[in-house]
Amino acid sequence: MGTLEKIAEDMGASAVNHRDFRLWLTSYPADTFPVAVLQNGVKMTMEAPKGLKNNVSNSFLIDPISNPTFFNGTSAPKKFRKLLFGLCFFHAII
């Protein structure tokens, strides 16, 4: 975390104020997260879906699964859909 704070401080205002500059960070809540990064950034949160049904449903809404070309582009659609559901269900349980 100290290295991240140093990098953020070294970039300075010139990089941060550039119209094409974006720095996207993801993190679990941490007490050691650099204060300078938090103070100079826009924060957003994403709550984990509550419940097994919502978690499985959300898995089907993300790319590439939500892409019809990917979802329907198989020679064995019945087997593929069963396998995909099993994988999403396993992910939701874990």
Question: What is the topology?
Answer:
Layout: H1 2-16, H2 35-39, H3 52-60, H4 68-72, H5 77-93
Descriptive overview:
The protein has about 90 residues and is mostly helical. The protein has two domains: about 40 residues, no CATH class; about 40 residues, no CATH class. It contains five helices and no strands. Helix 3 crosses helix 5. The radius of gyration is 20 Å and the shape is elongated. The protein starts with a helix and ends with a helix. The model has no long low-confidence stretch (mean pLDDT about 80).
**How many strands in all?**
0
Please, what is the average pLDDT?
A: 82
> Which ranges are low-confidence, i.e. pLDDT below 50, for 5 or more consecutive residues?
none
Tally of contiguous helical segments: 5
How do the helices and strands follow one another from N- to C-terminus?
Answer: HHHHH
Radius of gyration: 20 Å
Euclidean distance between termini CA atoms: 27 Å
- Describe the largest sheet: none
Beta-strand share of residues: under 5%
Please indicate the count of domains. 2
The outline comes out as elongated
Helix content: 40-55%
Helix-strand makeup class: mainly alpha
What would the keywords be for this entry?
5 helices, mainly alpha, 94 residues, single chain
Quick structural summary:
By secondary structure, the protein is mostly helical.
